[in-house]
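Title: Comparing notes on inverse folding

I've been comparing how different people in this forum approach sequence design from structure. To keep things fair, I'm posting one structure and asking everyone to reply with a full sequence. Here's the target:
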């Protein structure tokens, strides 16, 4: 990865190598100007010759590929992984804010006083759009970018879905007649599609089965309410045990791929284009499409990756590559203050230790019919009682911090033993805090090399 260079007067010059940047900093001919991206400012030189440098970006819903290159060199190759739990983070923030307000004093409830500005989009989409804009802004403020190329496509999800299901392409009123056309509820539409049959044990209503709607990809993992992500299962199969690893419902695959990325790009493509164009009016802005990128990648015989897609875009395709780097946003502090540890019992069937959740009575609440076998009867001897732990202090080392141990850098997964020891990754080795020193706190994006 190259280092961006600024002149004494603030002019953006051509990037230089890491070796030369270290020499300039050591000889006091340059100072650190910015850390993201790492930029130095010369103390003596005021001007310099600038070549044509282009920024190419492979936009995306989950992954963003960026390449900054000239005719002979690629100066920057970066992949940024976006957040997939933005809604959950907003919900948690709202919960903490309301609790804090209610503890301070009573406030009269408010209703219907939230205004949405023109062009409002959901926070999850807004976050992903902002990451694209922030990445472009940071690079343009540090390097002499003359051209920007963005890969933006317009997708028809109805056509994509028809192609996956091998159905005729929609025409005319087909766009108005969806999967639930003529059916009142989503639940009935799923049952009718599956012919009122459990997709696990194949039992039907005639066999006395009570049917439920199951999310193939769990909602906690980004699953949606699309019919392709829903399946019909009976009460005997739709149990907590079957939702866990090793269960019959765990790791199912939807019949149709998700179209989240296509929907995101269709919703924000012109918002992103207009914002970049207005913010960088002095830079030439171009648009390309995925089909062109695919043909270019095949022509250069390069493997599929988001950084490689960004490399083959635009007018320059240099042979001198930079080492690609991946940035993932990490949450530095876990705001969960209380944890529950379940009780342990001896299972009378095999004598092994099992948690209370594993040996439960199969009932969600008192008014709910049992969904599975009553395993409460196999609880024999209580080995350990259930307990709640409340965090009372903030530890100095948090998950994803970079620390130095034995002159090597490690990532941590947090502290234990009341903050006396830390766990080092990837070996999950426990080391005393006294033997460690902080190298970098993991606020914001965490940098890692591709493996």
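Reply #1:
Here's my take.
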């Amino acid at each position: 990865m190259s280092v961006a260079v600024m002149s004494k007067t603030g002019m953006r010059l051509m990037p230089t190598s890491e070796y030369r940047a270290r020499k300039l900093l050591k000889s006091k001919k340059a100072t650190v100007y910015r850390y993201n991206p790492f930029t130095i400012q010369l103390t003596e030189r005021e001007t310099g010759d600038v070549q044509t440098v282009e920024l190419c970006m492979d936009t995306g819903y989950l992954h963003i590929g960026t390449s900054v290159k000239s005719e002979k060199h690629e100066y920057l190759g970066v992949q940024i992984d976006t957040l997939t739990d933005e809604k959950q983070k907003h919900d948690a923030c709202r919960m903490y804010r309301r609790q804090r307000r209610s503890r301070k004093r009573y406030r009269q409830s408010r209703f219907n006083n939230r205004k949405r500005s023109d062009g409002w989009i959901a926070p999850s989409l807004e976050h992903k759009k902002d990451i694209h804009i922030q990445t472009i802004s940071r690079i343009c403020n540090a390097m002499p970018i003359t051209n920007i190329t963005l890969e933006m496509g317009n997708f028809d999800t109805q056509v994509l879905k028809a192609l996956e299901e091998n159905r005729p392409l929609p025409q005319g009123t087909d766009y108005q007649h969806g999967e639930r056309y003529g059916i009142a509820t989503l639940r009935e539409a799923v049952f009718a599609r599956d012919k009122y049959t459990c997709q696990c044990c194949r039992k039907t209503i005639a066999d006395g089965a009570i049917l439920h709607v199951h999310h193939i990809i769990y909602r906690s993992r980004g699953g949606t309410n699309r019919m392709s992500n829903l399946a019909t299962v009976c009460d005997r199969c739709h149990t907590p045990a079957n939702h866990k690893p090793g269960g019959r419902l765990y790791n199912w695959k939807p019949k149709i791929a998700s179209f989240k990325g296509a929907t995101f790009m269709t919703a924000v493509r012109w918002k992103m284009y207009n914002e970049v164009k207005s913010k960088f009016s002095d830079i030439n802005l171009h648009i390309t499409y995925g089909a062109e990128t695919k043909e270019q990648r095949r022509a250069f015989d390069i493997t599929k990756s988001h950084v490689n897609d960004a490399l083959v875009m635009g007018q320059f395709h240099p042979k001198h590559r930079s080492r690609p780097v991946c940035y993932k946003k990490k949450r530095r502090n876990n705001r969960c203050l209380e944890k529950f540890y379940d009780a342990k019992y001896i299972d009378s069937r095999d004598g092994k230790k099992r948690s209370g959740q594993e040996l439960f009575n199969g009932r969600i609440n008192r008014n709910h019919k049992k969904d599975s076998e009553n395993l409460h009867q196999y609880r024999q001897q209580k080995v350990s009682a259930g307990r709640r732990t409340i965090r009372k202090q903030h530890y100095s080392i948090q998950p994803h911090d970079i620390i130095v141990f034995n002159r090597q850098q490690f990532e941590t997964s947090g502290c234990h033993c009341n903050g006396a020891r830390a766990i080092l990754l990837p070996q999950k080795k426990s080391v005393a805090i006294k033997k460690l020193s902080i190298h970098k706190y993991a606020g914001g994006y965490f940098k890692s090399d591709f493996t």
